């Protein structure tokens, strides 16, 4: 079944952003909401007035940060209307998602009175409820509706959150489930978790328990809101939002609603009382301290022209106080470890208050998760995926248990005097690898079963464990993907590019040319690459090691040139952060297969440098080529655009925007589901390999020359004089422009790629010798922010 049009019922925060993400996927959307209750007699005759609520929601999409749309023009795919005038248009929709108020009676009435009689015979219906029972929702619906009804619980914001919990009723047809699951995965790019029809499903059930458990132990250990977020953040593999920043993000009113819902319906839950709300939450609700939506919650942020002050809520006085920024020894040691498994064990093996607090919260939360199977999910994989995809945990509950080891966990339970759950002591681990198979412990059969495997989900770590590693070092690996395609994987910190990666890249091209038919550059860390190793550059500048910097740049240029001129196709598979050198790798690849959420840019000017790994050269070549394709002699307009992107360190806010910025080109493609990224990149390499013709370095490029340099320089001067950029910004921009126009030559002088690379390297070295560049690099290393000196 091809889903061509989707109906969204309810245009609130969730409904409108759902509409945006369906539009992101190229799907036509009908977005409906109620008639405004305060229409005048005249307004009742005006269509735009009658659609005012949905129209306003559509307008608000442009002001939400982060942006719900990949590209602003996608909003044209969304048609708005109201439930009175336009409900019959639902007959045109193949898939209809309800996103109205979270009230069972209201939803049931709405479906029965408005929706059911106005849909097509084959349309699939769903509710986006975050925790209501599907069987209670549809209990007296017609039989034909019951079989094509399910719950699709998207997490907010739907563009960025990978998780969708799918819940079926006792009547849902398997074919309906298959159709929607495939659509959600491949078309919308979502990770699907099949949850049971239990209150609040999986992620909210476990996530809320962790939040309330943290609150319980916070008071016992005499900790503050700020302390808890310091301890239960990255040190335990949770996101930076930790506990209370997450609550502010979700909304205190939402937390309260889910807690009350849990307490009401979880009559047989052994931990039911934890869902009784502490008094301070009611106080926060009465004072409208609802989190980010009201500007005040567990934290308050005050911004002035010069300062940003952050305060946290003292839960004793209910007043906001300054951050104390208290350090805990165990947390500090844990945060130094890059692997979340190591961080968790370091923290739990400490002896301070933070370590004891973390153990109590994790102990109770892991036990609670263990006892919820098969109540909320059929297997441990579903629970782990739900928490990683929905709450941003680096490891799910059962992966955390394996990191601690079940044996050590049970020993500590005994020390605490806690009775072991049935069969926990007999479990060796929840996951293991046997030969080439991934196994998980099935708690119903009490045996290991093979995890279901989607052929589109290529896991590089599993491949390496299964003897598919061809060659590697501590920061890069060459992996056999089969079918004649190799993958070069980075696994350094932030996937920054240093000597080990440069050496492995050279070896990878040589081996792929001799032993394979294609090479992809891919990895599965948090980001594709943050660029070159800034720490190394900073230390070399401080030591006056300019010869070493020159050598490193030559190696970097040899790497990107090696990709561009290889005798086999090279495909890059970027995602998330793709800065500087990471972007240059993509620019010099035969093709880019990018995840939709790719933030790509040449950002070197923000630290007082210029792209010298072939990035400036490539953007120059693209400008000249575009001008030639347009059959215009003046390259200035195109070159000016690309120059501005480099000079301002412009980063794409999505892969679609990377096309507009010139970082991606015709023939490159975008993948919605990040789990499919390496598989699709492999397919691209296989396709290119069929009739591959290697490129040769260009030797007759018409240089833009002095005239173009002078023209664009005037614009730089005007921006400096208007105080839009600093004097040093202007200086760095001039050096970028000097390279892009071909140096001190007349217009249309024929130059080569090799010549442009030499210019890149020369200007990069000159900028390295500037004091202000070194200041910018050090400031970036210290704060993670650019310095405008």
Number of strand elements: 25
Give the rounded overall mean pLDDT.
Answer: 96
- Given the helix and strand composition, which structural class is it? alpha/beta
Largest sheet, spatial ordering of strands? 3-2-1-4-5-6-7-8
Question: Which stretches are low in confidence, meaning pLDDT under 50 for 5 or more residues running?
Answer: none
Approximate helicity band: 40-55%
Number of helices: 31
What is the overall silhouette?
globular
How large, in whole angstroms, is the Cα Rg?
A: 28 Å
Assess the beta-strand content as a share of residues: 5-15%
Q: Span from first to last CA? A: 58 Å
- Main sheet properties: 8 strands, mixed
Report on this structure.
The protein is of the alpha/beta class and 789 residues long. The chain contains 31 helices and 25 strands. The strands form six sheets. Strands 3-2-1-4-5-6-7-8 form an eight-stranded mixed beta sheet, with helices on both faces. Strands 15-16-17-18-19-21-23 form a seven-stranded mixed beta sheet, sandwiched between helices. It has a three-stranded antiparallel beta sheet with strand order 9-10-11. The model has no long low-confidence stretch (mean pLDDT 96).
List the helices and strands and how they pair.
Layout: E1 5-9, H1 13-24, E2 28-33, H2 47-50, H3 52-60, E3 78-82, E4 95-98, H4 104-115, E5 124-127, H5 134-137, H6 143-146, E6 149-154, E7 163-168, H7 174-187, E8 191-194, H8 203-220, H9 225-231, H10 244-250, H11 252-265, H12 279-286, E9 299-303, E10 308-314, E11 319-322, H13 329-335, H14 340-348, H15 353-371, H16 380-391, H17 397-404, H18 406-415, E12 431-434, E13 437-442, E14 447-450, H19 460-465, E15 469-472, E16 476-480, E17 485-490, H20 499-515, E18 518-521, H21 534-542, H22 546-564, E19 570-572, E20 576-579, H23 581-587, E21 591-595, E22 598-601, H24 615-629, H25 636-647, H26 655-660, E23 669-671, H27 677-689, E24 701-702, H28 705-721, H29 727-740, E25 750-751, H30 753-768, H31 771-783
Parallel strand pairs: 1-2, 1-4, 2-3, 4-5, 5-6, 7-8, 17-18, 18-19, 19-21, 20-22, 21-23
Antiparallel strand pairs: 6-7, 9-10, 10-11, 12-13, 13-14, 15-16, 16-17, 24-25
